[in-house]
Amino acid sequence: MHRPRSIRLLPQHEIDSCASCTARGYSVCNAIEDKDLGRLAAVAISREVAKGETFIQEGDTASDFFNVTSGTVKLYKLLPDGRQQVTGFASAGHFLGLAVSQTYAFSAEAIETTQLCRFSRPKLRELVHDFPALEQRLLETACNELVAAQEQMLLLGRKTARERVASFLVSRAEAQLPCAIPSDRIPLPMTRSEIADYLGLTIETVSRTMSRFKAENRIAIPSNAEVVLLDRPWLESMATGLL
Amino acid sequence: MHRPRSIRLLPQHEIDSCASCTARGYSVCNAIEDKDLGRLAAVAISREVAKGETFIQEGDTASDFFNVTSGTVKLYKLLPDGRQQVTGFASAGHFLGLAVSQTYAFSAEAIETTQLCRFSRPKLRELVHDFPALEQRLLETACNELVAAQEQMLLLGRKTARERVASFLVSRAEAQLPCAIPSDRIPLPMTRSEIADYLGLTIETVSRTMSRFKAENRIAIPSNAEVVLLDRPWLESMATGLL
DNA sequence: CGCACACTTGAACCCCCTCAACCCAAGTGG
DNA sequence: CCACTTGGGTTGAGGGGGTTCAAGTGTGCG
Lengths: 243, 243
Known about the structure:
The structure is a homodimer.
Chain A: H1 37-43, E1 45-49, E2 54-56, E3 64-70, E4 72-78, E5 84-91, E6 95-96, E7 107-110, E8 114-120, H2 121-130, H3 132-158, H4 161-175, E9 185-187, H5 192-199, H6 203-215, E10 219-223, E11 226-229, H7 232-239
Antiparallel strand pairs in A: 1-8, 2-7, 3-6, 3-8, 4-5, 4-7, 9-11, 10-11
Helix pairs in contact in A: 2-3, 4-7, 5-6
The first copy, chain A, binds a DNA duplex through helix 6.
């Protein structure tokens, strides 16, 4: 006996996943108008990845692009002996996989339960072809990432440990703008080790530096996963190397 | 008395600057077909900048984009106290100024006599609008720069001084592919100080490390502006952290 | 020639890393 | 309920890679 087609249960992404996506407002997808969202939803495949799962492996053939819709992802590169450099953290709205090359140039791992939207390269290429505004948004995204990368190079090449940690805290505070009321209480979903690998330091130095900021009453640490900025102006001065 | 119009001397860029441009082959301009080169030449303004001249200043309003047609420029960021991080060196074919923001996020200085092509932002926007292939090339360029930036973050955050210098030498050797026969004799138009600011080291460390490579017979240094790679495989292993 | 500038080399120091112990909260299972 | 484990974080002591400071060596150019 057949179930009538009209009430067949479709996977959620085939119904309205893009129209109801909470990340659409600040992701590249906002380049596509409401009336065309069906086209987008048709090629986007939603997927949940668990904390700790690596869903992009440096060197693998780059078959897909991803858009983070919730959760947080760390992007990183490895040296053969295991040294790790985190190149960035991506949260809701971030687009991953920008690359011309046939293989991924970095790895990506969810650091908490994360929702992703997956696009196959050929499908996205079609989409870009049909919606030039999308290509423009991708270019914008790439430019912004480039600017952030240059800022991070300055940090890694020329800043002291204290300046690095201060820069990190301030940038985290700025990063959580789009969603809520800008607050000085900022969540840190990543571990100290991941912060260290992002800042080119060791766990111990990150820990010591944060402890010292706390002793100096610049920050409070209500839990390991949260920091409160008590003296934002001072932290900003420290971050820019003025102290 | 009027000079007849037919033999009026036009600035060179109004005649055939783009068609005769030696850098066109490997720059974003190759996205534009020969028949449309007139459009390109009409908005491109050629300009020579002297060694030491800064033609892009971080923080200034971003009015123009540039294409390097010959020579070399260094791209860098500064901290208020003068600490400098060189984010890259751009030679013939490189496109500069990719950014969405209203202001430049970095400075650019010619490190030798350099020829540039200047495009005003509105003019380039027109061009991009009329030639979608150009936007695609710009996106490609941005992606490639992003990959390079991530590689540099790995270097700055996690590599030792020896690994950094070896990485630099190897990447310099790879960078000079498009023009000539790939050689192990590579030119270094930049000073030790600029290399140091690129690698997140001091002049002294760069100098010592190169001297040691020389003493170990991995390289030769015929002049301050040239290096010969004597043991490329070893340098590549060192660069990737295998030694 | 002699000055300027870039580079090299040496010696002492220091910031951050390494190594190691310890703390603490959240399981887990008897 | 408590002993034990496990994973992340903190703190301390000591060491080392790279910096700082300083002097010396080319080398091009007026």
